[in-house]
Amino acid sequence: MDNLNEGMVASVKLPRPPVHEQQSILKFIEDEVRAVTVIIANTDREITLLREIRTRLVADVVTGKIDVRAATAALPEITESEPIDETVDGEDLEEALDDIENEEVAA
Hints:
This protein is mainly α. It has four helices and two strands, in the order αααββα. The chain has helices spanning 6-10, 19-63, 68-73, 93-106, and strands at 87-88, 91-92. It has a two-stranded antiparallel sheet. The longest helix is centred in the middle third of the chain and has 45 residues, at 19-63. The radius of gyration is 27 Å and the shape is elongated.
């Protein structure tokens, strides 16, 4: 509206719940946000630990502390009927790994 002004907005009647119901709603929202915050913090910690493990594993393979040939010999054979999914959330696996490495270098 071209002529919408403060007086028109102030005159609009809006229903609102009683104070005790507002407090109940607020408590529910705070509890839900707290739960999601804990999940996010735990997930961030797990991601950090996985990146550290990956970095250590790569370093151990490069320095020869881990013999990759022995580890790969224990892997099951992949047949043609079992295609390898080389995408992560629709992104090419190599690109996803490059993104992770770039994030680690930037950090």
